[in-house]
Each structure stands twice: as C-alpha cells, then as structure tokens.
Amino acid sequence: MMQTAGFKMIDLGRDVKLQNFIDAAVENDADLICMSTLMTTTMDNMGKVIEMLKEQGLRDRFKVMIGGGPISQSFADKIGADSYTENAVEAVEAAKKLVGKDK
Question: Between the CA atoms of 89, 34, 44 and 19, what dihedral angle is there, to the nearest 10 degrees?
C-alpha cells in the first residue's frame, strides 16, 4: 500500500536488530521509520528504537509510525511514536500527513 502511494519502502524483514532500523533510515535518508509487530513480546522494542533515536540525537530527523495486532493508540502515546494506525489504508494517509504529502 505504501509503495503504491509513492513511498519508497525498505523492508528489513523480521527479527531485526534495533540499531538496523536507525542505520537503514540514516543510510537511505528516510522520512519515516515504520515498525509493526504481531507479538506482545516485541512491543517494547518499538519504544527502545525511539529511545535510541533520542540518545543518538536523531529523534527529530525521523517520524516514527507503529502498528500491528497488539498495538494501540495508548501504547503509541506511551512510547512517543508519531503515529499509530489500525490498518494499511490508515497508514498511507498518516504517512502522507507526516511528510506533508496530504495536500
């Protein structure tokens, strides 16, 4: 859905080392870091990526979107994500707003 909407997506796959999200975003001059999970055991890693961005002085450089089965808006608020969406259609609209392509 994101590619169809004109976004260049870099799929890092599953079981991704947390630093790899940041490295890929920097290397590709990304606007967004998008993370999704289907397991509650990996949810905390999303917050860790945001904390790592802060520690590395990069938090303001990237918008962070999260989603997946166990994720909620309250969890997104708790970890400081810029956007949470329930499905791919909402994700495209949110991404457009975050990068200013919604006009």
Answer: 170
